[in-house]
Task: inverse folding
């Protein structure tokens, strides 16, 4: 951008971003990003979901500063099963005398770790499998989609339980198991997107220029599937959180004394009648974070594909 452009008024900058005749790739990309943000910010619930996710990230980063007590060391002598607000424990304590608030704050790190690693592992695998399947067609498509159908034939939690049971309990094995069971829907979406653009003039022009099938898939087909994949991954985050919490509840996820939210619910189910806060507080945390991802994913769907919102 030239110096004169930097000195323009905000209205002129907006016109520059909204121009239907961009003068450079940078201007075109910034313009698309600006219009996407405009559509996203118009959805108040989506903005609320984004705020929840940003709050989760900040809490995970500064958990050591925010937590008033140790998440793993309790006080069996004088702080066992205290109700919320008692003796400086804002959300109460559990059966080991540990501060529930501190465990929730540190548990957000495990939740964020599961979400990020599952997305990093599962989304690229699904995108690659779906793009190759849709572009190649024939026996390659048949083989890859039958493998995908095998994974889709089982409920995600049941399949994850089988993998964790085979590999052994632990947060690392739980992440791998959830990632293995999460990629098939992404492959289906990528395949559908690839089939819609495989015979387009754009792809034909790239083929005439001599590009190899690998380059076409990697550089031209997969980027066109990214928007739909981002929306699906965001919407699936709530399911990933619930699956991780389910594994932790059954004792196959994070092992004690790690402050994983599902394991916290499992340890508090014995006291659900009299000391309700032990299981309720981590349940509320899971509810809020899952709701945030659902709201964010719904807003991204409307922002990245205006046709879905009827615009």
Result:
């Amino acid at each position: 951008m030239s110096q004169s452009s930097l000195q323009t008024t905000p209205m002129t900058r907006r016109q520059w971003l909204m121009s239907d005749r961009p003068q450079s790739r940078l201007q075109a990309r910034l313009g698309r990003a600006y219009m996407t943000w405009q559509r996203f910010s118009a959805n108040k619930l989506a903005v609320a979901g984004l705020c929840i996710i940003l709050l989760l990230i900040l809490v995970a980063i500064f958990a050591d500063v925010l937590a008033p007590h140790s998440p793993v060391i309790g006080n069996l002598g004088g702080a066992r099963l205290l109700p919320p607000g008692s003796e400086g424990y804002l959300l109460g304590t559990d059966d080991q005398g540990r501060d529930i608030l501190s465990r929730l704050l540190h548990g957000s790190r495990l939740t964020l770790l599961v979400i990020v690693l599952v997305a990093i592992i599962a989304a690229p695998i699904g995108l690659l499998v779906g793009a190759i399947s849709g572009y190649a067609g024939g026996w390659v498509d048949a083989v890859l989609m039958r493998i995908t159908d095998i994974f889709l034939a089982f409920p995600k939690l049941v399949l994850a339980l089988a993998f964790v049971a085979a590999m052994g309990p632990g947060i690392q094995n739980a992440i791998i198991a959830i990632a293995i069971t999460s990629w098939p829907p992404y492959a289906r979406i990528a395949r559908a997107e690839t089939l819609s653009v495989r015979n387009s003039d754009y792809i034909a022009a790239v083929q005439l220029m001599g590009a190899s099938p690998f380059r076409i898939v990697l550089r031209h087909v997969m980027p066109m599937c990214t928007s739909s994949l981002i929306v699906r991954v965001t919407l699936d985050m709530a399911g990933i959180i619930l699956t991780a919490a389910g594994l932790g509840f059954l004792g196959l996820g994070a092992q004690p004394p790690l402050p994983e939210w599902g394991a916290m619910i499992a340890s508090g189910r014995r006291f659900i009648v009299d000391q309700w806060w032990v299981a309720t507080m981590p349940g509320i945390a899971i509810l809020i974070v899952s709701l945030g991802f659902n709201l964010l994913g719904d807003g991204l769907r409307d922002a990245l594909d205006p046709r879905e919102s009827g615009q």
Remarks:
- The CA atoms of residues 245 and 262 lie 4 Å apart.
- The mean pLDDT is 86.
- Residues 100-136 form the longest helix (37 residues).
- DSSP finds 13 helices and no strands in the chain.
